[in-house]
């Protein structure tokens, strides 16, 4: 991709040097047609349906501009180039076509979530439209030319404003910002910069230099072709999660947009002292309003982050909750991935909680949670289901690995827990099940049943559920591998049959 863009850049530079020569015209048209063909080929390889239709619109825009250049070239060689002609129809037609493609991409990548991006984009576009009217459109309409010679040149800034609005829709919409998005934004930005140069450079440079800007459009076409051919182009049309944070650049752009109208008004009426003071005060007010707006948004973002965290975590231990565990089990089941499920219940916790208060019980639960986190791998999940029940989900772990992990869990949980001047101790009864070809709920139920067996066999041990545990809990057909462990003398015994 880099070599492709570098080669096109060299050819574009050569076309600028040879501009308005026969060799330059041939080179420009050959390069233009080649880039259009590459974009059409990339569009044809897009997935059938709306994605392909959008990429075809992207390919159609430079094709229309290429046809406009071809018509103008023929007129130059065969007749003369009129002030307004059929070439303008092709050139102007490319703007709404490309804008429609960009808006379609923004809607695809953020379905139903474009309201904020649309409002911000329209705010910035309105300011740009005011500037275009004041400096580019109104002066042309006031020259007194005929209808076509006045209206058609004025339509080019309108096309630029339309393209700018569509570009902002894509740039501000939620979604990934990978290389394809960057290439697309760079292409549209280059188009707008060239058009702006056509309007502003005549005031400071000669017509020969201004005319040589034309071939730069082809480098924009190369950027479009590169975006269409990029392996990750699906990011432009694939729905992505909504953005959670307000980007500071958006606030700055909104501030500039809000200041555009006052600044243009002062520039038009004259840069006198009163106008400059009014402009400065307006800028301060805008800055204060945007600062207050940013603070409010940041507070809302922090509140939403807390709510999202609370929805997926146990508030006491910080471990994942049952909802997260269920989602992970369903995902592993859907993927057919093996995993080990360890269901553990603390032995003697009730005696600690009842005899020493809930603060001591909470401290023991937090200590157990911290120890479990030190025993698992990076991709494993430790969840608290409530009370003194915990689950460890270890993807990719077989029965042997799960048994070794269960043994470490039993040993680590049994270590005394120092809390201030006192020391407490609990044990763990662990049931182990392997998720392989069975549902996640079945594996969890099998591990729960195996944990009950560990309770009945004396606590402070682990039991592996057999393959039939989830389907026939009453049959007692379990392949067990358990390590008897004497309860420490200081471990408060739980009531018979209790957890």
UniProtKB/TrEMBL annotation:
**UniProt cross-references to PROSITE patterns, sorted A to Z:** GGDEF
| InterPro entries xrefs | DGC-Regulatory_Protein, GGDEF_dom, Nucleotide_cyclase, Rev_trsase/Diguanyl_cyclase
Which superkingdom, per the lineage? Bacteria
What are the residue boundaries of the GGDEF domain, all occurrences included? 337-467
Q: Where is this region: Disordered?
A: 474-499
Q: Which UniProt keywords apply?
A: Membrane, Transmembrane, Transmembrane helix
| NCBIfam families named in the record | GGDEF
Q: What is this protein called?
A: GGDEF domain-containing protein
């Amino acid at each position: 991709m880099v070599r492709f863009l570098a080669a096109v850049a060299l050819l574009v530079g050569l076309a600028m040097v040879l501009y308005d020569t026969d060799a330059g015209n041939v080179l420009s048209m050959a390069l233009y047609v080649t880039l259009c063909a590459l974009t059409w080929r990339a569009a044809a390889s897009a997935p059938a349906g709306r994605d392909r239709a959008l990429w075809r619109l992207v390919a159609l825009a430079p094709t229309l501009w290429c046809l406009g250049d071809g018509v103008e070239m023929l007129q130059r060689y065969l007749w003369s180039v009129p002030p307004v002609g059929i070439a303008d129809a092709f050139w102007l037609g490319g703007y709404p076509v490309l804008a429609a493609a960009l808006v379609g991409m923004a809607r695809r990548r953020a379905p139903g979530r474009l309201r904020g991006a649309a409002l911000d984009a329209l705010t910035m576009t309105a300011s740009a439209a005011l500037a275009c009217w004041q400096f580019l459109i109104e002066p042309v309409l006031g020259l007194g030319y005929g209808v076509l010679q006045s209206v058609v040149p004025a339509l080019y800034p309108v096309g630029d404003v339309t393209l700018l609005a569509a570009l902002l829709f894509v740039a501000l919409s939620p979604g990934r910002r990978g290389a394809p998005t960057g290439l697309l934004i760079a292409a549209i930005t280059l188009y707008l910069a060239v058009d702006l140069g056509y309007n502003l450079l005549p005031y400071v440079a000669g017509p020969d230099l201004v005319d040589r800007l034309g071939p730069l459009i082809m480098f924009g076409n190369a950027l479009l072709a590169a975006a269409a051919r990029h392996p990750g182009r699906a990011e432009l049309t694939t729905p992505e999660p909504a953005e959670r944070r307000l980007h500071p650049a958006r606030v700055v752009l909104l501030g500039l947009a809000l200041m555009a109208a006052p600044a243009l008004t002062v520039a038009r009426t004259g840069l006198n002292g009163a106008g400059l003071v009014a402009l400065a005060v307006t800028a301060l007010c805008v800055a204060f309003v945007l600062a207050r707006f940013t603070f409010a948004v940041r507070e809302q973002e922090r509140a939403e982050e807390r709510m999202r965290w609370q929805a997926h975590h146990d508030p006491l231990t910080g471990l994942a909750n049952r909802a997260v565990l269920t989602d992970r089990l369903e995902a592993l089941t859907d993927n057919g991935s093996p995993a080990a499920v360890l269901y553990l219940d603390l032995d003697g916790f009730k005696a600690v909680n009842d005899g020493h208060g809930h603060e001591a019980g909470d401290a023991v639960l937090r200590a157990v949670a911290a120890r479990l986190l030190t025993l698992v791998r990076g991709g494993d999940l430790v969840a608290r289901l409530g009370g003194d029940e915990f689950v460890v989900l270890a993807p990719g772990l077989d029965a042997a690995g799960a048994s070794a992990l269960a043994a470490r869990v039993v040993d680590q949980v049994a270590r005394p827990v120092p809390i201030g001047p006192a020391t407490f101790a609990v044990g763990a009864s662990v049931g182990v099940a392997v998720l392989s070809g069975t549902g996640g709920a079945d594996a969890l139920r099998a591990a729960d049943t195996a944990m009950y067996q560990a309770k009945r066999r004396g606590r402070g041990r682990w039991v592996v559920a057999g393959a039939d545990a989830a389907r026939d809990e009453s049959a007692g057909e379990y392949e067990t591998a358990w390590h008897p462990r004497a309860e420490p003398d200081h471990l408060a015994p739980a009531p018979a049959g209790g957890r």
